[in-house]
Amino acid sequence: MGQEAAATSNGAGASKPHAVVIPYPLQGHVIPAAHLALRLAERGFAVTFVNTESVHHQTARALGADDPAGCDVFAGARSPASEGQEELDVRYELVSDGFPVGFDRSLNHDQYMEGVLHVLPAHVEELLRRVVADPATTCLVADTFFVWPATLARKLGVPYVSFWTEPALIFNLYYHMDLLAHNGHFKCKGHRNDGPSRSPLQLLLRR
Prior knowledge:
By secondary structure, the protein is α/β, with parallel strands linked by helices. Helix content is 40%, strand content 14%.
């Protein structure tokens, strides 16, 4: 679902900064990344939003689309809501995560994660080499959960921004995991007698 034609027709990309936004292929990561893509477009960026085919099909079904292949979740953003409102330059691209759309990613979680780590980067790199016309005006904005975007950015000579899509509380928990373990809130062996046995923090960490 390339958007090269749209980019050519409106003349975008010649002088605009270009952000390629790549969310982690889980719905809870895709939604914040989509919000960021729209905010960047509102501020004058040309944005290429990269989704996996599997997440796209889930989203299309949720939107009630009869044909997922023809569903463009950003079509509304490219249509001004009122007269005088500028059309947002958001292009929507799909890549394979290495598995068929019908593959059960929940049932085969470990295999899927291996694909995200080792197969998805090759498909993303192929796409980037097609959509990055000018490295000097392009930046890669990718989910912090990925481990490979920095390598791709170096290959292409573009800046890389790591985007954290989860709440700040979750980031704080990850960042202080060693402190949480040291104080017995995480990986605690035995029963603690200095506080509630099942605090909200412990319940959260045990999920």
